[in-house]
Amino acid sequence: MHELSIAEAIVERAAETARLHGGGRVTAVRVRVGELAGVVPDALRFSFELARAGTALESARLVVRDVPALARCAPCGGDFAVGSPPSMWCPRCDELSRELLGGRELEVTAIELEEASG
Fold first, then answer.
1. Distance between CA atoms of residues 81 and 100, nearest Å
2. Is 90 annotated as a binding residue?
3. Which of 36, 40, 43, 95 keeps 20 to 30 A from 104, CA to CA?
4. Binding residue per annotation — 95?
C-alpha cells in the first residue's frame, strides 16, 4: 500500500511547514487527488491516521478533494469525463483524445496552522 509512504511524506512536509512558521500546531492538511493518480482516497485517509500518530500532527485532519479525470477532444472541442476504467474516446464524435485536462493530480494545496502561543 503506497498510500502509507505518501501519507508519511505529507506528515513530514506539514510538520516542516509548521516548524518554519513558528511551531504552530497543524490543524488540517488539504490535498487534491486525481482519479487517475493511482491513489485510493480512503486508503490515504487511513494511512494519514497511522502516519500522524505520535507526531506534531496528532490531531490534524486530512481533507481530500477528489479531482475527476477530464479530457478534451481536439476534433470537436468538447470536454468529457475519462471515467474508470479510463477511456480517451470522445463520446460525442468517437475520436481518440490525446489531451488530458486533469485527473493525475496528487498535491498538497494547503497546510492549516494554529498560531503558536506565547
1. 10
2. yes
3. 95
4. no
In which domain, by residue range, is 95 found?
Answer: 69-101
User: Any binding-site annotation on 15?
Assistant: no
pLDDT tens readout for residues 59-101: 999 999 999 999 999 999 999 999 878 899 999 999 999 999 9
> Model confidence over 3-27: pLDDT tens digits?
999 999 999 999 999 999 888 899 9
Do 97 and 107 sit in the same domain of this protein?
no
Residues 6+ apart with CB under 8 A from 98: 74, 88
Q: Hey, what's the torsion of the CAs at 69, 88, 79, 91, to 10 degrees?
A: -120
Give the separation between CA 59 and CA 74, rounded to whole angstroms: 47
93 assigned ligand-binding residue: yes
Q: Are residues 11 and 49 in the same domain?
A: yes
pLDDT of residue 93: 94
